[in-house]
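Below is how a single chain appears once it has passed through the pipeline. First comes the sequence as given, then the structure the pipeline wrote out for it. We keep one example in the README because the format questions we get most often are answered faster by looking than by reading.
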Amino acid sequence: MMEENEEQSHGQQADLSLKKGNYEEEEEEEGSFRLHVVTWNVATADPPDDVTSLLHLNSPKSPDVYVIGLQEVYAGPLRFVSDTVFDDRWSRLFMSTLAPRKYIKVSSIRLQGLLLLLFSKLDHVPFIRDIQATYTRTGMFGYWGNKGGVSIRLSFYGHTLCFLNCHLAAHMKYASERVDEFEYIMDTQTFECKKAPTIVDHRLVFWFGDLNFRIEDHGMHFVRSCINDQKYNLLWSKDQLTIMKKKEQILQEFDEGPLDFQPTYKFDLNSDTYDSSGKKRKPAWTDRILWRLRPKASLPDEQDGNGAGLDVKQLKQLEEDEEYPLKIRQDSYTSIMEYGISDHKPVVSIFTLELRKMYTTPLVRLQPEGDWSADIDSMVLYSPLQPFPSSTWDWIGLYKVGFTSVSDYITYTWVKDDEVAFNEEVIQVYVGKEEIPVRGGECVLCYYSSTLQCIIGISEPFKVHESKVAIEEGFVHEQINGLDKTTASEALWN
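Resulting structure:
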């Protein structure tokens, strides 16, 4: 069987080489990308049944990337233990909702009640690289994770992006403490990345979360009257974040769209009524989404055109800004009022990124060889298109079409262990028939780089045929065309 597969490879080898040569022409260097950012303090509630409005699933324009930041996800002892082993209920909801629409969870990080999720359309996944996630505790003197920040950084077509989800100190009188916490998070979070070792080194930063800034001075009657009359601009001057931005340099570097939606805190549960309890907390825009485009490096003297006076890092930034421009536009910034499971309403912002791609080809091109089924051993053909730091821990996974995340594979094979042939163009990797699902279905192959911690190549979808042997043995019955994770090794072949 192995010899037959090797003979079949020659025609497909030429085909793969041809695709390799033409691939760069298929991709355009200029790109426009849509980002959908969500922040929501869910107040320990379980997720709603429907997140269509939250994710704008009925919109004619679908995002390229979803970034979802939650605060106060339930973190009781029993639930939190299970969530560290399995995906939490919120993650499972978003994954099951977005996977059929060909999004996968690229990365996530959780610090007790803080949860940050990043989903991407499958087409972009091989171009999202150098993914790292980290967290900072600020609650209870830094020992307890009820407050703090979680972040995910990555390279998107070569442009460095960082997403920071924060839950800062509560209560009206702690505006300065909130700024101190933010500065502490910005100062202490570091990444193993020479190009962008800190948050501010990234080309573009999104900062969002329950930032807990309140509305000062104005009385309850005036605030509610402005909200009822939709005269939100009368409240802006007393918004603590707006006030603090005038004082703090680090805040001035962040942009925010106009607060043309009613304050998102604090509501009675399952209603649009502001706090009617005895405390009668004043409404506030606690839930915010801001962004920072790295300031362009400038020459010390406008007449000095050779870059004298700039250090190496500044020169590289100046060259990058000129050769690979990046622009951002906020298309919308609003709250979603229909959700009542929390005392906060979710806030959503849509952004458009216009950028020139620093690379247009994936690091690896791969495809299945011949027909696949659980009746025969199979081969994967892959070809490195660019140099990358390969590792003995690299692997190729077989996934069903509509998979939810990197870990949602049917089976995998270690690249170095199961490599059976090599030449300058194409490398063959063996997959045993006992690892292939007997029921078949539509699948893709993904190459995962252990060093880069991401998928660096995805095949076109292909059909895995149902096992003829399994049919004859009566193993495959009603759902013969449905793909599940039952493989030959788990069922028939044992």
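The mean pLDDT is 87.

See the next section for the split statistics.
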